[in-house]
Write a structure and sequence with these properties.
Elements lengths: L6 E4 L11 E5 L2 E7 L4 E5 L9 E7 L5 E5 L3 E3 L2 E3 L6 H14 L6 H12 L3
Antiparallel strand pairs: 1-2, 2-3, 3-4, 4-5, 5-6, 7-8
Length: 122
């Protein structure tokens, strides 16, 4: 990115998680994409488990475009939690990752069909 290395780590998938997580590390920072549902992926300022650092969501539309919904401040126990504001580089990385890997998670049906088709010969 801008002539610098960008380390990209694909998280392990699993049947209960239904798909992958993506972690990108650059300039000592870390951002990640974590599937939310079949069409949406949460974009985080940190590792996939750091949900309090949510930038927003990337959502796939029927026409193939991706919408971005930025997280709004949340009130928790009489305290307002302000979402992080992404830098230009963090925005570019988020868009690039969602374009490269897509958004959302695989459905359980799709995963089971994949298991069945891989187990059948020929």
């Amino acid at each position: 990115m801008n002539g610098r290395e960008l380390a990209l780590t694909i998280g392990s998938g699993g049947l209960l998680k239904r798909t992958y997580r993506i972690v990108a590390e650059f300039d000592g920072r870390c951002v990640s994409l974590r599937p939310k549902d079949i069409e949406s992926t949460t974009y985080l300022n940190g590792r996939p488990h750091e949900i309090e650092k949510e930038f927003g969501e990337f959502t796939l539309r029927a026409d193939g475009t991706v919408d971005v919904f930025w997280t709004l401040p949340k009130k928790v126990l009489h305290k307002t939690i302000e979402p992080p504001i992404p830098t230009t580089e963090e925005l570019l990385v988020g868009y690039a990752l969602s374009a490269a890997f897509g958004t959302g998670a695989l459905s359980l049906t799709t995963i089971l069909m994949g298991f069945v088709s891989s187990a059948m010969p020929g």
